[in-house]
Amino acid sequence: MSGLAGYDVPPLYKDKITPRQQPDTRSDSEILSELSKHVEVTSEKNIWCFWDSGLENLPNWCRHNVLNWARVCDSTWTVRLIHKVPGKPNYALDWITPDDNLLPSAFVDNTMTGPYVGQHSADLLRVALIWKYGGVWLDVGVILFMDLDRLCWNRLSSPENPYEMCTAWSNQTFVANHFIAGRKGTEFLLKWQLLFSHLWKDRTSCDGLFGHPLMQWRMHMPPDHSIALKFKWPFNVPLTTIVDYTAQISCFGRVANLQEPDSGFDGKNIWHEKILKIDAIDECWRAEKLIGFNGQDLFDLLNLRKPSADADQERYQKAENLVWDLLSNASMQKVAHGKKLFATPALGTLWDEMEREGGGSGEDTLAKLLRDGSVYFEQSRREAEYIEVEKLDFVLRKGLLEE
């Protein structure tokens, strides 16, 4: 089987990927034109993403990701990139208005400070958008390999299934938030959003969120050492900083363990019975699982070009196998930045630096094979691999905002 120009699918992967049956033939400019418009919501099949300064300022490698989502998913899906530039189409507060009472004043009044303004602006939008309109949130750093219908939406939209959401599970009742799928009006999503927005009340930065009374429930969770064994991110900041940065994920965990005596809301039951789960390490960070969590290593491998006869064939073969494995077996690859969190630069940071220096992935690099292959090929498996997770004895019998 021939693949992209100059590449043949290795025998190991020939039964796992095939050329896409109905490839999207639109040019980049055609898709960019659509992304630049305000398109009214007509269904729940919406792909939401965010870049604070807008589409024009999106790094090229992220722009390729977003363009390719439109190609990997069919025309029944609408991609929208939300931003914080008033007066331009897809301005955030035109989609989630102050009257919705879903956003804290730090977002509405644009008073957020600190090194993570962009990241936490996205955090405050992602769940609100899905709750209000339905659809899927993807971070712009996501390279998508499986179309969203097969990944989750066929299940979520089927009246024969109980599922309302799909998330990428990391450990216990915690998930990654680069990918969130959900049906419009899902109660779990609303609880999650209201809790996270409440944490930001009277704040302009995430500093100290770890000490908020509504975050203290984590202290009573049973210990879990598996996450440190699976996710070996090279953090170089205190644990409290990580908890501050990932507060939205802690909020998910609280809702997933919550049983409210007064309202009858049972987040624990919803977590186990109504939320589809994919394994984040297998489906989203498979590259790190295969070669480790050093961004420079991944950057170097993906930047390789087809070697000459006397070059390091073994190293190139390792890198090419990595790409074919991702194209065949992962739902997506979330490219991390780890801004001011990691001891060594993450792949996203290195790609940003390469762009600023005037470089880019050449026409024959493995990074380009990964990017173009995500569009050219589709996986043979008909859906992602869903997992069941352990039911913990731990439960929070409190109100959502009860300390």
UniProtKB/TrEMBL annotation:
Location of region: Disordered: 1-28
One Pfam entry name: Caps_synth
UniProt name for this protein: Capsule polysaccharide biosynthesis protein
InterPro entries on file: AfumC-like_glycosyl_Trfase, Nucleotide-diphossugar_trans
Phylogenetic lineage: Eukaryota, Fungi, Dikarya, Ascomycota, Pezizomycotina
Biased composition range(s): Basic and acidic residues: 13-28
One function term, GO molecular function aspect: glycosyltransferase activity
Organism of provenance: Cercospora kikuchii
Database matches in Gene3D superfamilies: 3.90.550.20
